[in-house]
Amino acid sequence: MEKSLKFFEPGESGIVKHVVGEGPIKRRLFDMGVTPGVEIVMKKLAPLGDPMEISLRGYELTLRKTEAEHIVMYVEDLHYRGEGRNRRGRRTQPVSEIKEQPIIASKSGEKVINEDLYCRVGRRGHHKGHRFGRGRNKS
Amino acid sequence: MKFALAGNPNSGKTTLFNALTGSNAHVGNWPGVTVDKKEGIYKKLPEKVEILDLPGVYSMSPYTPEEVIARNVVLDQSTDAIINIVDATNLERNLYLTTQLLELDKPIVVALNMIDVVDKEGYKIDILELEKALGVPVVSVSALKGKGIKELMERAYSKAKEKREGYSPLAESVLGNLLKLTTEMYKIKGVSNPVFKAVKLIDGDALEIAENPDLEKELDKYKAQFDVSNYDGDYGAAIADIRYKHIVSNYSIYLYRVKSYTSKSEKIDRVLTHKFWGIPIFLAIMLFVFHITFGSDFLYLSLIIPEGSFNIELIGKDMIASPGTILQSGVEYLTDLVLGGVYAKMPEGAWYTGLIADGLLSGVFAVLSFVPQILLLFLFLSILEDSGYMARVAFIMDRAFKRFGLSGRALMPLLMCFGCAVPGILGTRTLGTDAERRRTIYLTPFFSCGAKLPIWAAFAGVFSAKYMNLSAEVIVFTIYIIGIVIAILAAILLKKTIIKGEPQTFIMELPSYHIPQIKGLLIHLWEKLKHYVTRAATVIAGAVVVLWFFSSFNFRFEYTGDSANSILGTISRWVSFAFIPVGWGMGENGWRFLVAAITGIVAKEMVVATLGTLSGMSGIDNGAFSALLLSVGGTLGGLDVSVPAMFSFLAFNLLSIPCASAVAAARSELLLGDKKVGRKYFYGAILFWIATAYSVSLIIFWFGTLAVFSPWIAAIVGALIAIGVVIVVTIKSKKLKVIEKGIENETN
């Protein structure tokens, strides 16, 4: 499922699909390492609800929600059932629409070509041994 | 020989620069922008090496003045080699800049900093393998401890004599052929650093296109043959992505995780940016800073020290003054000694005694006595900045500032203004954009500084004694609130009118916490002290002499020694009618208040001193003085309007032109960059301060008079305005919420 980084909750993580928008904001995000395929963990919101603190490539970055809006993320859709609608009636997207297999770049430099995207990403702590693990989500 | 020092912000660049050049560094400004230019000399090689510290940048794109400067320097022919400092704890993002530097045809040496922290965090870096992969020397250094610096410089020195050809990660990517073609175009044209320039041209870099428009046209033809549909045809995205992918697969594989570790910064941040405790902790830290700088009862020790145990001059009676206060009284003690000596040596009543003692020395000393406190505030500001906490303050407070067209980073300088506007104004350097910097400087006087407090105290004391229902604390507190409210309104007004500026972005690294380096702090503080004292000796001394001349000579240029009959006094009598609408210009004493307000431009403490002199008696604790203060405004149509007139006078002093030191600081900060534009903004600031002071005083006086005439009418009018504001604000925020909901629905 696609989701803007703006709507992430603290502790949630995902992989950058692409960065939308034009000009300096987009360029600045790229320069700071927000490129397709990188894993971002949303760490917290500031006490007044904005901006947010995220962690990527082993460092912490803060940005306002209006800027986070430019970042489109992949997240695990727990109710994924192929194209059509899921249990909650939301539209879902077939895997084939995702052009590129994201790469998870961790600080240790290990490069994981992510064959089971929908199990790897998602809320922290959910992804390992979750009941909606591999078998169910992979179509 | 000339080396440029390049690296990300927070990578330890300044520390390395200080370690390389010692105390011979020279700090200036890059022409045209507010970015520090630092130069120094490294002497431990056979040849003297000039070191140029580039501003900290994340990239070589042309979006900020820092990036443009860094780019011009690395491209400059006179730069023989580049030392690229890389923070090992943040390898991936730091190497992003390295990949851009490697594209230059220049010798490069990578200084791998903070390797000890990497060890502690449970990582290991294979430096030899990294060196092989990068193809340039990698030297592990500790900028803080001065380790590895000699080796770094020796390798850089030997490499600087060799030639190097630029290499781009693009060469191995889908854009490889495009890069080859573009590089050839540059080579044919005979441009140096062809690879670097070719990549920038493919990137669609505005500076590069402006420089080589012919090549850009040609490139467009080639571009059609390449498929970047993965990136929606966005070459900028493609290049950034290729760089990072290249780093991950070729360089950062040499960073191994040995054991797991929660970084100290994360632990500290759990407390300092906590949802509930973040803001209270920040306020507590600020209170503590102010207590150390301005408190008269350090740590409230008077509560435990028994009465009558000691009474030491400069330190206090049964209590210990805070370090800032002790230093300030110390300087005052010294300057009083000097002044006393001068008075004793010179004949009383002579004009030159007036010039030297009353004018020059008194004025300059009044300003100098604040130097310790200004420096102390500045020291704290630098410690908070260097430790990494300032970025957190910006993070936790940004939301509150966004609405006013400022970012969280403006908070700290503005808070400093409650102590003294000078460090506040100098602290605006760290702000993101010129527009934000200017707006912040415009707001600085509205935060009531320490030197203005005596004015509030004098009036509050006298008025609370006469009007029993008006307590002194309430008067002083009201003034502070007026200042803050006006600052907020002014910020919104400025954003919408004079200083519009580019849309604000707030994408900022939260650097790891570290202990500030004392050497660096002292160097920084020493620069500020030099700056400040030179200014006191030049600009401020000049202003003092001019003001002294006008307040002690009459129109026949005879020395009167009495400001009442001086040029200033006479002119004030003539023009005081202009201040009748604001209340305090009325009555027979109106001109006296005007003179006081004008002398306040030298130093705000002078306001009370001038009123003391003008009350006819020297010294402040006498009936004539309080009678003068109470006479402010006088009567209007049989109504006693002295209370509204007093508030109007206080508000005027709060909001109008700040003291000479602050004006000088504002001038030097606003004039940085484009001098012509800067001058415009500086005169704009002066006008803005006067206009704000005048109009706010006007509103206060007339609304206050209405309240004296009939509290009920005033209450109804006030309530109506308040309701109107609340309605407007709620409608606006509701609209926003509806829009946000819409976006949320769409994305889901």
Descriptive report:
The complex is a heterodimer of chains A (139) and B (748). By secondary structure, chain A is of the alpha+beta class. Chain A has a single domain, classed as Ferrous iron transport protein A (FeoA) (SH3 type barrels). Helix content of chain A is 15%, strand content 32%. Chain A is built from four helices and eleven strands, in the order E-E-H-E-E-E-H-E-E-E-E-E-H-E-H. In chain A, strands 1, 2, 3, 4, 5, 6 and 11 form a seven-stranded antiparallel sheet that branches. In chain A, strand 7 and strand 8 form a beta hairpin. Chain A is globular. The C terminus of chain A is likely disordered. Among the domains of chain B are: 159 residues, P-loop containing nucleotide triphosphate hydrolases (Rossmann fold), CATH 3.40.50.300; 79 residues; 187 residues, no CATH class; 29 residues. In chain B, strands 2-3-4-1-5-6-8 form a seven-stranded mixed sheet, sandwiched between helices. A two-stranded antiparallel sheet of chain B has the order 7-9. In chain B, strands 10-11 form a two-stranded antiparallel sheet. In chain B, a hairpin with a 6-residue loop joins strand 3 and strand 4. By secondary structure, chain B is an alpha/beta fold. Helix content of chain B is 59%, strand content 7%. In chain B, helix 15 runs antiparallel to helix 23 and helix 28 packs antiparallel against helix 30. The mean pLDDT of chain B is 85. The two termini of chain B are 59 Å apart. Classes of the chains: A alpha+beta (139), B alpha/beta (748). Chains A and B meet through strand 1, helix 1 and strand 5 of A and helix 3, helix 11, strand 9, helix 17 and strand 12 of B. Strand 5 of chain A pairs antiparallel with strand 12 of chain B, so a sheet runs across the interface.
